Amino acid sequence: MSRLSGYVNRNMIVGGIILMLAGNFMFALNDAMGKWLVASFSVGQVVFVRSVGAFIILGPLIVRQGTHKLFHLGRIGLQVMRVIATALDTLLFYAAVVYLPLADVMSFYMAGPIYVALLSHIFLKEKVGWRRWLAIILGFCGVLVMLNPSSAALTIESLYALVGSITFAIAIVLSRVLRGTSDTALVTWQTIGVGVGGGLLAVGSWQHVPAIDYGAMLLLGVVSSVAHLMITRALKMAPASTLAPLHYTLLLWAVVFGILFFNDVPGPRILIGGGIVVLAGLFIFHRQNVQATVPPENVPKGVN
């Protein structure tokens, strides 16, 4: 019986890994499609129609779980903060990819786990030892290499990507705090928030476009929703510590799609800074895994 249980558990983990990889691929595809669309249409219009398209997937899920769960939420203040953070994250991401290569923007977002570690220490009182503090500092150095903050090189587009990645991390921390809320409710309200933000930005810049372009924007929402659902299911099938490093495959796909579709080749500054950020993030994941699997009494004091 135990052998059968172990076999099933292994299959669940493998299934979770496959779903995580597929979900990351879908997110990267979503990002490439979004970059292609915002080259011709306003960010607000693309994001608004994208949010409408997301309900092609979310609609049946809402009906199945019942609409009452959408309106009976705890900690309303934090829920609103999370919706605002996810809306800013999405809008700033698309504003950045209008001007920057996909891999450049994604490299900034790869710093998300580093910001999460710092924010979790500040707001969730999670202990961070000297090893992870060094990784956090190293990660910030990588961000500075990518940002190139000299008066001649610093651009508003880079700041869009930087602030967007920080709001992305804030949304992750708030999702941890609100983990008792159903996945469908969280995704539904963040989709509504993004749609409202996009609608406000689209005022005065809305274009009448052919049906095929509206179809592409709606498809963007479908792809994004499917990616969210894949990753949510993966996290229920396999340990987060196993799946977390796979997050960095997003950067790989961003480089591939950038070269194939936009002829964008990452420069040395982005490659070096992105590499530093990835190494720092992987080390943080490793230390979190150690803390989660080793009994506290076996961990030397100050090692977190």
UniProtKB/TrEMBL annotation:
Keywords: Membrane, Transmembrane, Transmembrane helix. The keyword Membrane applies. InterPro entries: EamA_dom, EmrE-like. It comes from the Bacteria. Residues 16-147, 158-284 form the EamA domain. The keyword Cell membrane does not apply. Signal peptide: none annotated. The chain crosses the membrane at residues 12-30, 36-59, 80-100, 106-124, 133-153, 159-178, 185-206, 212-231, 243-262, 268-285. Pfam families: EamA (PF00892). This is DMT family transporter. It comes from Aquamicrobium segne. The lineage of its organism: Bacteria, Pseudomonadati, Pseudomonadota, Alphaproteobacteria, Hyphomicrobiales.
